[in-house]
């Protein structure tokens, strides 16, 4: 007994030492890289028993001047402190200050002077701003519920409001802010809201985003969200209820986050009747405001005002759009027991494309996303047409995709329009409901959403579905210069702008596709992904919550996967370095009379034939001798192995020894396509764990009944292998990447 215990102790010591020496190995657990589980966030990836989050309710009155583009607003915020600590101050986001004087974004913008720069691109290329626009908030007052002024400090895009007394756990505080700012021309400033001016008819389309001072997130993970808004990293926001009154010219149509409360005050009787009909119509959109009506309003331009009132419950933000140019159509969508109203607003410049595709795309997105995550909980979903844009908010999104002036459009325009609408509507789920921190981790909303956008296109638009967000589509990026890349787990503002799309959108989507199709399988993946959505709906998940939930709900250890795809810039490049073909020699050899060292289970140990790499199968199989088992191998066992029986089972079998090299560094499953002499094919899948002992090179033996004439690794481009010219045997000199570049998709 003492001997056994000593042996175990020595073995444990050796294992611990090995782990300490190789803790950075690709198959070691993430360990301390992830935050320690606690009563707020558990090791399983679930919200803990003491999980908490803050809440903020808003009552807002806002007016937009159609002549000056000035927005004037007054809001009352009720902030609920559910944190287990008192707060001495509150932080608000002032995102419009990104356009204000002395803003950090302009000061840190890099660029260079280049000859022959188009004037419209001057700011993007060189950072030179020549506009006379004066942006940023004018904060007129900050007061408590009794009307007493509250002291505040503005730090670039954030404002700290000092409280008269600590706000204790379970208490709430009500205060008001009055402000204004001038909306910007989005053709000049690359913002998320803004207006578009139409010179031919002298009208505007307005999209208002980040338009009001909003509460920052205070959570268990880092306290107050304290990263300034620099333009790329998006938003961390708190859930609450909104009551918003929007005053605009009377001939404008308004769409917003939430449900219209006063239709009888702002719509004509005919519009109300069509609006109500749309709520019961499931097969096609109902035209509420026609193109003919919109064209007539473009000319008359009412000078009167109307106030539209919208209510939105349990949302993290609020946006709205309005114009007299808007055509309006809507139809109901069946989602579980709910019937949300899908609505599209678009000027005549969007037709006929938008009339055909927008509301249909909303419907498709809501249905597919609801199947994969949670049933869409909100009562409405808007898609609003603007030029060259794709931006999302609760229940409303702003989307580009414009036909030619004569109404024609290309297949590419059709694809990009449908894709962006599906994508932005999909953002209702990530991050508007599963509410991740976009300022920190763009991939948690953009990557997960791009994955489901890709799935929606694959399922509902197979004729349009391309390679965006797929392993095949990410190959050119993964093949690039690693020294210029950042890992997916990078803060949003620290990713190079020209790599932001692949890094935050398509690489995470490709990774999830590999995870679903190759590593886990659709059934395990879909259940785990849905579990994550259900656990964190209307909460604030972090990366560890996603990683842990996917493992918890599937019983698949994925630390190696997260480490490779999300924490490094490694790529997949498997080289099929060597193939050897053997057949068992049909004779009995006594090991006692043959000077051969044997190892249990090593079929090729007795082979002393040529070991140089093969180029093809033309030389035929090598013989190897299957020895009778030496008596010394039996040890204390009394029974004997049937050597002749084993030899008989392997008679006429083809034994192939394959050597794989991990050139790219990213460990991956291995997918092998075997082509046999009779023309048949077989796909064989090897889990990524094959690399767990040697991450650089592995050799594996396969026994086949048929003779093999061709072997290909990753035949269907499902692994994102960046260099497939080294994936074949006999050797193939043409890279599949070169073939991909020829692919129309």
From TrEMBL:
Q: Which Gene3D superfamilies match?
A: Neutral Protease Domain 2
* Cited InterPro entries: Peptidase_M1_dom (IPR014782), Peptidase_M4/M1_CTD_sf (IPR027268)
Composition bias, Polar residues: 607-621, 723-732
**Chain segments carrying region Disordered:** 593-621, 722-745
Ranges of compositional bias, category Basic and acidic residues: 593-602, 733-745
In this chain the Peptidase M1 membrane alanine aminopeptidase domain maps to 403-565
Q: What protein name does the entry list?
A: M1 family metallopeptidase
Give the originating organism: Chryseosolibacter indicus
